[in-house]
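Feature request, filed as a ticket because there's no other form

It would be nice if the structure record came with a short human-readable summary line next to the tokens. Right now we just get the raw output. Example of a typical job, pasted below so the devs can see what we mean:
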Amino acid sequence: MTATVVRSPASTPPPAAVTTLVRMRTTMLRRALRENPAPMVAAIAGLLAAAWLIRYAVRGNPHTLAVLTGAWVLGWIVLPLLLGGTRGRLRPTQLRLEPITAGPMTAGLLAASAVGIGPAVSLAALSSLPVHAAVQHGPGPAAVAAGGAVLLWLIGLTGSAVAVEAVGRSTGAVGAVLTGTFTGAVMGVTGSVWAVAPWIGSLLVTGPPVAVLGMLERVPSDWPLAAATGGPGKAAGLLLGLAALAGLLIGGYAAQVRRVLAAGAPFRPRGARAVHSGGLSTGGSVKPALSGHTDRRGRPQGGRAGSAAGPAAGSTTGSAPGSTTGSASGSDSGSTTGKTAGSTTGTPTAARTAIGTTPLGAVTVRELLSWVRHPLRLQYLTFAVVYGLLLATLPLLAHVDLLAPWAGPLAVLWAAAMSASLVGLDGTALWIPLLTPGGPAVETRGRALAWLLLAVPIGLVLTVAGILIAPGADPLPALAVLPALLGAGATTPVWVALLRVKPVLDARHPTAADNPTDIVSVLLAMAGPLVAAVPAFALVAWGPHGLRWLAPVAGLVAGIAVGRGALWLADDRLARRGTEVLAAAGDRSAPPPPAVPLTWDPQWYRDNRATAWALILLTAGWVPVLPQGLLVLVLDVHGGWIVASHLSGGARTAVALGMVTLGAAMLLTGLVLWGRRPLK
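Raw output as currently delivered:
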């Protein structure tokens, strides 16, 4: 009998491994540019921002320039997490079965991550540091600043890779909260730009406050210019500090890659750890499953083991909508199956037992758990809170306290707006209520009740906080509108989500890049709460003074009326068109969009006019928004080609606002045309 020796494949030579990974990333980028205008639009916006930063570096304050470049590098590190950065880039988990050792894989992945729009635009933005040094101090300091800028760019490149690998894999709560916070902050500052403009202008003109200058010396983004203007010893020390920081990040990323290759997976299943730790802590032995196989949660699976372990795993067989039965494997949802009230393992908590004993309670508990577990839902909720809070409180910087009590109503309104596509996130899990007697009605009410249980405390806490922050503002309008928004906001998004189903590509592993919410759904979801708020607000603003105290009652009545109407529409939609909604939620068979040629092809543009116009509008729309509009309003930018800079007073402001409106209309039209492009 001859023994067979299985030889492991020889490892790929390091140069070939690095070259292969770079070519893979180049192919991915080329395909992304052909199929989606988002990278090109992002490149246009980034290049405009980098061009302005270089222009500011010519005569701007060096400390402010250090702050701006530091913010740029920080955004480069954080943005991949916020935008679902695991997509579109190579990661060690995808290559752990390839014959590549840790060192070449680390070098190849870092080299591949340098191929892209973000690194190229960031390098252009950081070139503002040597530009400033060259203009202000000459070619010698410019060379030193250029070396520091390259090291700072390397820090951003490796820091982004480390952040994605450390947080991106487990971005359940962390990535969702970061995404919602960042996007809410950006939208809040943009919406209150008139209030923060004086602060931004002071920073750009006079520089940071004196108290902040000492802290800036410890920030790496300040070191390139400090090295350019310091002596040889100081310059060498600062550049070595940047190199050491970059080396530390490279070493950390290499350790992450080595861990993935050694373990075969980035993280051990939590179920397996719980089984082993439970057996050791109780002194008992762990009995292996009969089939020897476990699923990704460590539960026995397959054969007699699956049937024997079914009851012990805590799978429920009740008929409550939203509960999961043993045959629910056909669902592809990651938010309503497997992680719901009906599929919890172990002993349920007292709260779940008390609430989930009825079908309505089961759906409510499922939705509450989905709100805190599903990354996109948690992102939506965080965005609504941050956006509403900033819209109401940032005007305090301009000594305007009128909007402070509106923090709660604004957060509630946006929480309703961002709930307009929740059905699409659940995949095909909607078959459970459709096959359950009385399931459609319970499904819609459970979703609305869960939203209310989350939105009511948020709205009340933020409203009370705004009243305490601005005791001089009249709180009655906000208090009158709040119940109307809550009543209508609970059910209107449920109807909109059933009316306009927007499925995600992978319902089990969603990221921020899978956000299906579109502007039409958002506007429809906001329409119901705004209509319900009209009677209460009209009574406060224009009604008899003696009847103003009835405004909260009017808001409550209007909210209940609009909410009941939207609930009826949702029930009718799910009952009559349930199979259609289910098919739309699980639609994965749509043909790929036509590839956009990277070279000039007149025939293609004639055959795809809608796509061509969408690309033109999405590219050119940023010009009136940024340089012709916002930069004039916020930063008081002047230039020969900037129309508003040739005017003064109200005409200048009107032209700048008109440019912003024109650009926004162009971008919105481009998005609509892109959504309606023919799929061939």
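Something like this underneath would help us a lot:
Residues 265-348 have pLDDT under 50 and may be disordered.
The two ends are 59 Å apart (CA to CA).
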